[in-house]
Write a structure and sequence with these properties.
Length: 182
């Protein structure tokens, strides 16, 4: 999938305006919360946030800035998952999932050194990912994706158990967010 296709799919999933009482994100259109829209310069009514504005926000905040494009350049199948998880959980979460997975899969730091699981994808994370790809090949992308999906499902369960109001969303998260396919 191209980044445009990834963003279009997310906008399609997120739909139009919502302000669900159980959603801590508040007023949202196209999946962009009011807080995020304001941070990216949109000052209008959220009910009429233009789709093009949402697209631009998605591209900057959830693809370029967190360096998910760099991850997808190594393993394209990770792009949609990293992006979608970033939209739904915040961009540092899938970054940390990737870093944790890379640390668990480096065979005791013999393939490459452990990296900080701080959620910020930087030079060391990309270097570890490239080394992982060199050692594990194409099959490694599938293993990373499964590992990230497992972390994601566990996080959804944890936040739902900690805040029962999230039960309103849990089924949809599992059905529509875990296991995004390229």
């Amino acid at each position: 999938m191209t980044v445009n296709q990834i963003i279009d799919a997310t906008i399609g999933k997120e739909g139009g305006y919502s302000n669900h009482p159980a959603d801590k994100g508040g007023p949202t259109r196209w999946g962009v919360t009011e807080q995020v829209a304001r941070a990216y310069g949109y000052a209008g009514d959220m009910r009429v946030l233009p789709r093009a504005t949402a697209f631009d926000i998605y591209l900057k905040r959830y693809w370029t800035e967190p360096r998910f494009a760099d991850v997808a350049a190594v393993y394209p199948e990770l792009g949609p998952e990293m992006f979608d998880t970033g939209v739904n959980m915040g961009t540092s979460i899938p970054g940390a999932f990737l870093q944790r997975a890379l640390n668990l899969l480096n065979r005791g730091a013999t393939d490459y050194p452990d990296i900080a699981a701080d959620g910020r994808i930087g030079t060391m994370t990309i270097a570890a990912l490239k080394k992982f790809a060199a050692v594990r090949g194409a099959a490694g992308g599938k293993v990373l994706l499964k590992t990230i999906d497992g972390f994601q499902l566990g996080r959804y369960a944890d936040i739902t158990e900690a805040r029962p109001a999230n039960e309103a969303f849990f089924y949809g998260w599992v059905a529509n967010r875990v296991g995004i396919e390229a």
